[in-house]
Amino acid sequence: MQFTRLRLTGFKSFVDPTDLVIADGLTGVVGPNGCGKSNLLEALRWVMGENRAKAMRGAGMEDVIFAGAHSRPARNFAEVALTIDNGDRLAPAGFNDQDQLEIVRRITRDVGSAYKVNAKDVRARDVQMLFADASTGAHSPALVRQGQISELINAKPKSRRRILEEAAGISGLYQRRHEAELKLNNTEANLLRVDDVIEQLA
Length: 202
Ligand code: ATP
Description:
Blueprint: E1 2-9, E2 18-21, H1 37-47, E3 77-85, E4 100-108, E5 112-117, E6 120-122, H2 124-133, H3 148-154, H4 157-168, H5 171-201
Antiparallel strand pairs: 1-2, 1-3, 3-4, 4-5, 5-6
Helix pairs in contact: 2-5
This protein binds adenosine-5'-triphosphate (ATP).
């Protein structure tokens, strides 16, 4: 799976529709201070399901919507679309029936976020799992923000291990295991309740 295109509308400083072609290999973003380099990286994390406003440098998630500047009024929504080439058919099951995937996240003021994959409504969790299974996502070590290299060098072994696990592609399995544990706990609680009811009836 290869990222091929990123489209932003009303996202942070990208008020006008902006289309970026992502070429093969390593991509670096350069430009003067304040031109929106970090905003671009955040858009990529955001469309992959980032749900922490702090990671977007905001107090609330609606802070990603263009807030207005000079003569331009604030926008009511922000949208980011990420196109992925799935010609090699490596997308996780459920998303693997097309050569190209377009993941769209839109946030509307007072409404919240909505996600689509190839124009079909999906849940945030579906998008997060899609990227986790493909060994990438909002927390992927492949997205290197400013200062991250020195953070990595100074990181505690536990944080460094998390990065290695992401790179090894097992973070999706951890998420699935966690969900399975939650289901197991619920089922055990239900069984206890059934035992209680049977005891009362006996
Ligand atoms: P530096 O090199 O200094 O780190 P940068 O190129 O990474 O800068 P960003 O931090 O991506 O730049 O962009 C900062 C700009 O984005 C600022 O001008 C800020 O006002 C603008 N900005 C951030 N959020 C919004 C928003 N919601 N609406 C409008 N503009 C925004």
